[in-house]
Amino acid sequence: MSDLETFKLETRAWLEENCPPEMRTPMKSEDDACWGGRNWTFASDAQKVWLERMAGKGWTVPTWPKEYGGAGLSRAEEAVLLKEMARISARIPLSSFGIWMLGPALLKFGNEAQKKEHLPKIARGEIRWCQGYSEPSAGSDLASLATKAEDKGDHYLVNGQKVWTSYADKADWIFCLVRTDSTGRKHDGISFLLFDMESEGVEARPISLISGKSAFCETFFEDVKVPKDQLVGEVGKGWSIAKYLLTHEREMIGGSGEGVTRPLHEIAAGSIGLESGKLSDPMLRAKVAEAEIDEWAFRLTMQRKLAEAKAGASLGADSSMLKYYGTELNKRRYELMMDAAGHDGLEWEGERSDEGKLARDWLRTKANSIEGGTSEVQLNIISKHILQLPGA
Amino acid sequence: MSDLETFKLETRAWLEENCPPEMRTPMKSEDDACWGGRNWTFASDAQKVWLERMAGKGWTVPTWPKEYGGAGLSRAEEAVLLKEMARISARIPLSSFGIWMLGPALLKFGNEAQKKEHLPKIARGEIRWCQGYSEPSAGSDLASLATKAEDKGDHYLVNGQKVWTSYADKADWIFCLVRTDSTGRKHDGISFLLFDMESEGVEARPISLISGKSAFCETFFEDVKVPKDQLVGEVGKGWSIAKYLLTHEREMIGGSGEGVTRPLHEIAAGSIGLESGKLSDPMLRAKVAEAEIDEWAFRLTMQRKLAEAKAGASLGADSSMLKYYGTELNKRRYELMMDAAGHDGLEWEGERSDEGKLARDWLRTKANSIEGGTSEVQLNIISKHILQLPGA
Amino acid sequence: MALLLNEDEKMLSETAEGFFKKKAPVTELRKLRDTQDEKGYSEALWSEMAEMGFAGVLVPEDQGGVDMGAMAAGLLAEQMGRNLSATPFFSTSVLSATALKNSDGDLAKAWLEKIAGGEAIVSFAIDEGVKHNPLGTETRAERSGNGFKITGSKVMVLDAHVADAHIVVARTGGEPGERDGLSLFLVEKTADNLDVERTIMVDSHNSGRLELNGVEVTADALLGTEGEGADVLDKVLGAGRAVLSAELLGAGSQAFEETVAYIKERKQFGKIIGEFQALQHRASHLYTELELCRSAVFAALSAIDEGDENAVKFAGMAKAKLGQVAKLAALEGIQMFGGVGMTDEYDIGLFLKRIRVLQELLGDGNYHLDGFAKENGY
Amino acid sequence: MALLLNEDEKMLSETAEGFFKKKAPVTELRKLRDTQDEKGYSEALWSEMAEMGFAGVLVPEDQGGVDMGAMAAGLLAEQMGRNLSATPFFSTSVLSATALKNSDGDLAKAWLEKIAGGEAIVSFAIDEGVKHNPLGTETRAERSGNGFKITGSKVMVLDAHVADAHIVVARTGGEPGERDGLSLFLVEKTADNLDVERTIMVDSHNSGRLELNGVEVTADALLGTEGEGADVLDKVLGAGRAVLSAELLGAGSQAFEETVAYIKERKQFGKIIGEFQALQHRASHLYTELELCRSAVFAALSAIDEGDENAVKFAGMAKAKLGQVAKLAALEGIQMFGGVGMTDEYDIGLFLKRIRVLQELLGDGNYHLDGFAKENGY
Known about the structure:
Chain A is of the alpha+beta class.
């Protein structure tokens, strides 16, 4: 038996024994996720037990080295683990920007002390992180950020404002882009700091969105003191860490339509019905068919680009292409779903509409082509890096 | 009886008596038009007689002053004349860039001698004109023209090349933009010259287009001598004459879809047929309906803008809007006609397809959004002059 | 066809512009929404609209209206569209007033008077399913004693929960899908066996549902001729769609203008974003589309006033075009505003929501494209 | 599904790229057109293609072919699309070869051998009306003596006038619109009562019409089972549409790349026009669409080779997508080239013409969108 086969059987057995039955049902909403952190209240014992057991195995971050709280699995072993979890519909034990974003960046750019300090706590869900990138006046032009970190000898003094910081009101620590030098090119002089959200001078206020509820905050820093050893990488070299993380984020968002599997035409038929075997609205039918074929071609393209990446080609600027098309397509999908839902889709409150779920989801998709770099920015990137058009 | 009523009755009687029966049938193609000029061969006696009689009345250019070969009619009288001609399906007696373009420019910018010399010959169809604007390296950027006219005391020496000169191979004279000064801003230093196409050093070569037959030429000037009294307006001020003429042209092209009256859905139904009362191709049906509604809204907009212009408002940059939308819509129309025509529309030669008429017309429409200022240029003009966006 | 406004219309348009900007701007809609106002509209505003003659814009002079016609109603709606004003104007003064004035009888006249005086809100209950489908009406009205007994459900009934009466479209004959057999009834809010439910909508404008569980009405509650309601309905829907198109024109134009103003100010990458040619071209295209829209709206409205035989068809064509373009204006707006456009603080999101509702009401673009093709025999 | 090329395929693709660029570039098409070449293709080129194994790419090895499958055929077609190469490849080596190899019998084998050897051109005659409509076939084949007598008209028969034989789809039963009753016949060019007319097409590639005025064929001319031709047809059309999609990918990509190259050089208003952001965004969008197209083409081709039950469906989906995007590439190209693009001197117009034909063949985008919806039960 191959090592991988052995690993599979062992994993299956362990999961069978250790995954609580309550954790073997699909999450009904974002509210069912476990985010961890200092102030986390577990929704159930099962949620707590499941996190502890998985963290104990290093399986909240299976490919991280063991000394940082991971299990040191190979990519192939990780794939087996995920497959075995999927087999029993096991929930992910921990949702975490620490795992998805900061962790990879620390592994690549952090020093030994920082890795030792932060990674295990991320792996165990003890510290919940948020991301301090966007600023009100910067928008798409991330690098023109203005939040200032002054060198005060043993610490930096941080002043400024961030926006779109997801869950800043619930996070324990923040990884944050700040300007340590404003004399040279704007991309230089940016540094990458970590600090505690309970530091004096930090305030986070949730933002109300057009879709209502929101995880986003505005975050204000007034004379926040950050010890110098909380700088990641070199001073003034934070932009390369940021870019590394942005590419990650772009791929995640571009693929966000991926999980949605119910075919549009089924949704439409369920709402407006068929006449003589065809969708009762012939014009909508045409648009649904077009969208479904585009979804098919897009899914294939995701797969193809992933396959190319696995075969050694760098995804590079193609991630912009995927981000651009995937988000625009998802917006189209929701417009069509709203068309099909008709009057029912216009409700905003009340049980019948599940508190306006479709309308709110539809509105939420409008951010797809803005967050993580607007569609316009992605098109600029394609023009510049792929087509190499002048002045792009 | 009002003067206009009297004029109407007199006009009707004169037309009844003077318009030959052969000239009372719609033109079957461009070939039936009478262009006049030194080398013109009349297609029939009727064509010759009709031109002579109309020119004799001053009705080839009804609103021009009598001393320049016109009839000095008011706009209202002209409208009556056109209506009465339409009543008996009378053909226009003379097709002429002299009438449509140069005439209005000369009336506005020419000196008395030039008006006396050229306008009557235009009115009588004795001299056929062509327009020398575009150049190969200039394209949309008309003002960057390079054809040079050097001041040689009593004459200009013209060297350079024009392109897209319609019927240059058939025209007697050309009105031509040349550069008399290349030191200042490119819009300055442009002058407006008239000269004989039989002058030494002029050569016109027809251009073969993707649609086949073409009225367009490339025109070459090598040391062409042009007497100085053939300069219109001031030296270096030719750009304002050009702009005046371009606005004329834009309006003509934007409205070029206007005359086409057969509804798209009839054409489509004639080609692919109906099933249970609906176009047999449901997807094409959706696109045809959308295009027809757009055509309706566009026609209304043409009418509305004309009504506004009549009411005293200046059309201004709105002519760019009409040019942009009208030409794009016409291209869409022909794409849909090609879709409906299917296999039949793909034939290029032979009687069955009338020598590939539809395919050639379809290809010809692709120039709509290029000639007279590209769609991109029109959108720039709207951005700048209507929306007043910065840097447009 | 009148494609230019005459002096009276210009004056009305200017008056309306000033009125709604001052009395019912977007902040008023926010207030109604954020205070969870029970009525969902301002009674004081509605009274003023009655005084100005707006409430009775389509009501004959004999019943105290100003009877200015569809073009006038459209000009008012355009300004309400620009300000997202929440009023019972559309349900009461457009749909129900058109229905009532095309039905003889004292009852109709009495309600027209109340409408013109701002004393009554009358909702118009037609739709039953997820999509607009007038001939699909299933609600039944059966003879019962001297009157009728009505049974069925209605959705997307604008201003239902604040209405003093509802005009209900029901079948006295025929089967769903047929034109024959439709009748219109006036049902007072006090009727027995009538349940009215308010539904909170994405655009924060009033809408609701009616459940008619055997509602009894007297014979004079029948508006017009029994079974021939479809003819009245044509007029109601024609006027309704044309006026909705006008409101979409207002909302779309306002969204567009606010977007253009924003991109003239917002800086990114060291440039005003309005300098980026890609945005310029999209804005210029949209400008052009909105100009086409204005022509379509004027043509549809004036065709009604001129009694043009194509009036209903034009209204549908306008609704198809406006739904599509106003939506484009909203989508371009939300994208060009970027992140801030996603926050509730900015108005562009409210325009996106309102336009979504307006384009759905009385048939969306797909419905009217299909209808246009059918109308033309293809 | 194979979304990446394996080493063999990569090598084939590179070979084909070099071959067609050298042997059958656009100038060769111009030459055929401008000399009004009677054959409309180069016999020398076709012989070379046979030697390279291209002519027999789908022919079984037993009949002298290389039997490399649909993916290989698509890779060849892609390169022909890039060069607008005029060859009998599609009619003969794709459509007819697929039909023949899915029919038993010695006759089929004999013709497959000739195809692989480059010794025969075999056209495939299916369409009869202005639009593709395989089940609409009206051409009839009636029993006559030991064989059949075929009567009907065929249009858009690629390479008809140079074909040594034609595979004709005809009804031996059923009515137009029905799937049952279709049969395929091999008709030699020498048959009596057969008129072949060459039609000169907008893309300067070979096409023609057949008039079958009671063409007599022997029983062995029936390919496959009488009345069950639709099953073979599925395979022919599936392969045909997938390969056409590949050719569209080639033509669309080439048009796009030449356009991008042009806007990097052309100056206007003192700037390289490729610097204008509006053009950049349109180009980047098109790049993205073409990437989706490549995935669709690879998926459709490999599904055939893998015997996937959805292969025919995928081919239709790819054809729908490719028709639309390649057309966009041509239209954007012609607009961005501007005036010179309208002249016959530049190649972009030839791409526009060829793409128009390719997207029409075996069903245009509308046809396949509708078919896709039907296939999925809506």
